[in-house]
């Protein structure tokens, strides 16, 4: 009914506020806060917010909390902020509830409590508050304070996105892009990226740029990609700055411009982007660069050394130009490279630091080691010249589905790959033909390596320019001698690496880190699965026939004739490995929907491994229906086709009883079938059955036969049980030294029980020389993985001061911890002390 007049509004707000009206006090505070109808005055805003807040005005309480959070008009005080947010949140004000949730999620002004954060986000989200919906979606997406649930994440992202929340729009785009919690739909991803990008959300602008650059969900348009990268980069998005540097460096979607490349790389380098730091460091090694003359190459290298493991390739690339291979810089990089426990779990720490080094000019294999390059020049794996005629061995999955390939040696000589011999074998192996002539290639060994033989792997982990040497031992020979498991540091990029014996003869080709084959978690970087010498010889013999090769450049028909190649071309092994990788989430977020699609496709082709993996998903009810009857049917089908993992699973189900009635006689039949196919774990189980009389008569002689076979193949459980047999004289004459030997082998192979038993041997000098300190180190290793016996032994050591400083309170804490988990020895120990586990 009147013309808008903000000054007049302030006048009347002031009159009412001075009479104590809380609404007026809040409104007046808002005007001072925002300079509406009055000169902006944050202190005056705080004054009026406080007056209204003290009267219980929820909006004012929330606004006052924000002032304390950000130090607006008052000294910053996060605890005070939480106090006022809590008052408003408890009155049901959604904005305050979202703010309080944020405080709990980030430990701001109070102890971090992600579950409490989810509680408050949920309250606000259920009132339709978009920011809380976006934050709640993030919690479900990442398992923050709540069980990870991608579908629930998508639900909340959608609610927020439809209200225009840019963070949620971007997150929803990511879900559609990855097929996480929703069917994969790249066009829908682009739609949501665009909505968020147009609101100025930097991460979405970067994602949209990447879609345009790669033609993902939209027509490829490199100029449009640069446009969106630029918008994001100007807001400080490091990924976009890095991509913009790449664009200017290579002239992608924009004129090539080194100065601009340097400018954007330098910005990205401040956020520790490996590509940017590598580029700047590499350039600085040869000449000065505009704008970064104040930095040394060492600066960028040292920064690279602190990056997560997957960026270490650039770090190692960089050290190549630093001079001495054993310089302090290299040693620092190697330490950072190896100690990757925070990212990939404790298995990375199993790699012995002295087991890796750079190749030297004196190494006999130097001229034969190759990088395998994709069509765009990216390093995708390692290879090795065989003989002098330009033939190259590598892993089949490295080159799967690629129509353009090349190889490059240590002197940067490069040859295109002309033809490929995929062979007709089930191993992950391929032979490439290049035009290289008169090369010094590797020679095949005469004899296969044996368990415990020392072997050397040479390759390009993480795409490093200079090859890296890793030494280890053959731990296990599996699958009828077609593959070895070796204690070799094996990272992405090592696929296709040659493995040599002590005479520098070629005995194998690295396929994958053992994690990929065995589906173990966390990823085991300290072991490699190696295609055997027998397979290499078969391939080399087959390659003598010209018809064994197919033209790489002509077409991909040869790929369809092999069992290795990718899902769309019929690639079996790589497809299944990819499924396992997606399921485990080894390099990025888990993507069970994608994994299930791969397993279903392979199972429909009748592939035994695909059937087995699909059975596991039905058993868990992950993506596919939870149907244990179906799982059992599929395990039987896979086992009947010869899959030893399925045989083991059936044995385990029958042993324990659950989805099938307990029947140890039938369990033994499945274990025997797998054992007779050479599976070391199955051999150990058969031995354990005969040792214990499960499902059969007790027979120590047969038990010893199978347990010994398993132990000699390197199976940790078999080695542990073999130690028990020698310790107790089951089927063998008591021999403490042999018991200690096998316990040690089991411990080194990761058996927690083996670690405890070997620790006891060392502690008491049973079968080996007494060494209290070494005993403690094994107890600690097992205890850190939750082994209660190890924790109990540690407690005893702390109570008596054996091998460690005496520390009774620490011992008591350990006994209580074990007792609360039902550990009988700990319960009895506390009982003798008259102490309750809950005291």
Would you write up a description of this structure?
The protein is α+β, with helices and mostly antiparallel strands and 839 residues long. It is built from 39 helices and 14 strands. The protein has a 6-stranded antiparallel barrel with strand order 8-9-10-13-12-11. Helix 5 (78-89) packs across helix 6 and helix 35 (752-764) runs antiparallel to helix 36. The longest helix has 13 residues, at 6-18. The N and C termini lie far apart (72 Å).
> Which structural class matches the secondary elements?
alpha+beta
Spatial arrangement of strands, main beta sheet: 8-9-10-13-12-11
Content of β-strand: 5-15%
User: How many beta strands in the DSSP annotation?
Assistant: 14
Number of helices: 39
State the domain count. 7
Whole-number mean pLDDT: 81
Which bin fits the share of residues in helices? 40-55%
Taken from the alpha-carbon principal axes, the silhouette is globular
Question: Which second-level CATH architecture of the largest domain applies?
Answer: Beta Barrel
Low-confidence stretches: 284-289, 304-351, 513-523, 553-571
Taking all Cα atoms into account, the compactness measure Rg is 32 Å
Separation, N- and C-terminal Cα atoms: 72 Å
In CATH, the topology of the largest domain is named Thrombin, subunit H
Broad CATH class of the largest domain: Mainly Beta
What topology emerges from the helices and strands here?
Blueprint: H1 6-18, H2 22-34, H3 42-54, H4 58-70, H5 78-89, H6 94-106, H7 114-125, H8 130-142, H9 150-161, H10 166-178, H11 186-198, H12 202-214, H13 222-234, H14 238-250, H15 258-269, H16 274-286, H17 297-305, H18 312-320, H19 328-338, H20 341-344, E1 356-358, E2 369-373, E3 379-386, E4 391-394, H21 396-399, E5 406-408, E6 414-421, E7 430-434, E8 454-459, E9 468-478, E10 483-486, E11 498-500, E12 506-513, H22 514-518, E13 528-531, H23 533-542, E14 550-551, H24 557-560, H25 573-584, H26 592-604, H27 608-620, H28 628-640, H29 644-656, H30 664-676, H31 680-692, H32 700-712, H33 716-728, H34 736-748, H35 752-764, H36 772-783, H37 788-800, H38 808-820, H39 824-833
Antiparallel strand pairs: 1-9, 2-3, 2-5, 3-4, 4-7, 5-6, 6-7, 6-14, 8-9, 8-11, 9-10, 10-13, 11-12, 12-13
Helix pairs in contact: 1-2, 2-3, 3-4, 4-5, 5-6, 6-7, 7-8, 8-9, 9-10, 10-11, 11-12, 12-13, 13-14, 14-15, 15-16, 16-17, 16-18, 17-18, 17-19, 18-19, 25-26, 26-27, 27-28, 28-29, 29-30, 30-31, 31-32, 31-33, 32-33, 33-34, 34-35, 35-36, 36-37, 37-38, 38-39
């Amino acid at each position: 009914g009147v013309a808008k007049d903000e000054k007049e509004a302030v006048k009347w707000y002031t009159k009412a506020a001075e009479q104590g009206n809380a609404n007026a006090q809040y409104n007046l505070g808002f005007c001072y806060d925002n300079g509406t109808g009055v000169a902006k005055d944050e202190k005056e805003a705080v004054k009026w917010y406080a007056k209204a807040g003290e009267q219980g005005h929820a909006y004012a309480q929330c606004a006052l909390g924000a002032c304390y959070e950000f130090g607006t008009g008052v000294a910053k005080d996060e605890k005070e902020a939480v106090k006022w947010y809590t008052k408003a949140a408890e009155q049901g004000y959604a904005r305050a509830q979202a703010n309080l949730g944020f405080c709990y999620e980030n430990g701001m002004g109070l102890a971090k409590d992600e579950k409490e954060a989810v509680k408050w986000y949920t309250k606000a989200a259920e009132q339709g508050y978009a920011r809380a919906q976006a934050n709640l979606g993030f919690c479900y997406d990442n398992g923050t304070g709540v069980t990870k649930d991608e579908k629930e994440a998508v639900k909340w992202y959608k609610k927020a996105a439809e209200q225009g929340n840019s963070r949620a729009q971007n997150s929803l785009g990511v879900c559609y892009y990855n097929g996480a919690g929703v069917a994969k739909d790249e066009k829908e991803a682009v739609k949501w990226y665009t909505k968020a990008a147009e609101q100025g959300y930097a991460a979405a602008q970067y994602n949209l740029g990447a879609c345009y650059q790669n033609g993902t969900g939209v027509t490829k348009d490199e100029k449009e990609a640069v446009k969106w990268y630029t918008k994001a980069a100007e807001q400080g998005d490091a990924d976009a700055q890095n991509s913009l540097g790449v664009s200017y460096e290579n002239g992608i979607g924009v004129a090539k411009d080194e100065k601009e490349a340097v400018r954007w790389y330098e910005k990205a380098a401040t956020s520790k982007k490996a590509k940017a730091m590598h580029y700047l460091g590499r350039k600085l090694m040869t000449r000065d660069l505009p704008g970064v003359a104040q930095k040394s190459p060492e600066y960028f290298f040292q920064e690279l050394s602190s990056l997560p493991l997957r960026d270490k390739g650039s770090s190692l690339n960089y050290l190549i130009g630093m001079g001495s291979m054993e310089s302090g810089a290299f040693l620092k990089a190697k330490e950072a490279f190896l100690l990757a426990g925070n990212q990939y779990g404790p298995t990375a720490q199993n790699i012995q630091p002295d087991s890796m080094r750079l190749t030297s000019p004196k190494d006999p294999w130097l001229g034969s080691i190759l990088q395998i390059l994709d069509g765009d020049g990216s390093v995708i794996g390692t290879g090795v010249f065989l003989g002098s005629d330009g033939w190259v061995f590598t892993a089949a999955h490295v080159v799967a589905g690629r129509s353009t390939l090349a190889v490059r040696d240590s002197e940067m000589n490069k040859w295109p790959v002309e033809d490929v011999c995929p062979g007709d074998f089930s191993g992950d192996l391929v032979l490439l033909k290049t035009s290289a002539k008169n090369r010094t290639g590797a020679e095949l060994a005469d004899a296969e390596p044996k368990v415990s033989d020392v072997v050397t792997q040479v390759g390009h982990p993480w795409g490093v320019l200079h090859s890296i040497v890793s030494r280890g031992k053959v731990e296990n020979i599996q699958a009828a001698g077609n593959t070895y498991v070796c204690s070799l540091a094996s990272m992405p990029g090592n696929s296709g690496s040659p493995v040599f014996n002590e005479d520098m003869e070629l005995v194998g080709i690295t396929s994958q880190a053992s994690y990929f084959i065995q589906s173990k978690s966390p990823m085991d970087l300290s072991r490699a699965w190696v295609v055997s010498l027998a397979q290499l010889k078969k391939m080399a013999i087959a390659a003598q026939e010209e018809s064994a090769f197919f033209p790489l450049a002509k077409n991909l028909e040869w790929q369809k004739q092999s069992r290795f190649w990718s899902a769309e071309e019929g690639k079996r092994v790589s497809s299944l490995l990819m499924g396992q990788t997606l399921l485990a989430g080894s390099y990025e977020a888990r993507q069970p929907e994608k994994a299930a699609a791969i397993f279903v496709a392979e199972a429909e082709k009748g592939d035994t491994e695909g059937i087995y993996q699909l059975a596991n998903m039905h058993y868990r009810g992950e993506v596919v229906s939870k149907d244990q009857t179906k799982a059992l049917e599929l395990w039987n089908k896979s086992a009947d086709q010869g899959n030893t993992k399925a045989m083991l699973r059936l044995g385990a189900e029958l042993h324990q009883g659950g989805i099938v009635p307990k029947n140890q006689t039938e369990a033994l039949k499945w274990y025997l079938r797998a054992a007779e196919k050479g599976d070391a774990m199955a051999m150990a189980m058969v031995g354990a059955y005969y040792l214990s009389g499960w499902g059969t008569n007790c027979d120590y002689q047969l038990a010893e036969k199978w347990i010994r076979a398993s132990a000699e193949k390197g199976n940790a459980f078999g080695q542990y049980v073999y130690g028990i047999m020698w310790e107790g004289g089951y089927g063998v004459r008591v021999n403490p030294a042999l018991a200690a030997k096998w316990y040690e082998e089991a411990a080194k192979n990761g058996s927690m029980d083996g670690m405890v038993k070997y620790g006891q041997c060392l502690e008491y000098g049973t079968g080996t020389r007494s060494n209290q300190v070494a005993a403690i180190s094994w107890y600690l290793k097992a205890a850190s993985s939750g082994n209660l016996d190890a924790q109990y032994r540690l407690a005893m050591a702390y109570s008596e001061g054996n091998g460690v400083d005496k520390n009774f309170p620490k011992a008591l804490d350990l006994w209580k911890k074990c007792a609360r988990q039902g550990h009988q020895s700990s319960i009895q120990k506390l009982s003798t002390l008259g102490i309750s586990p809950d005291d």
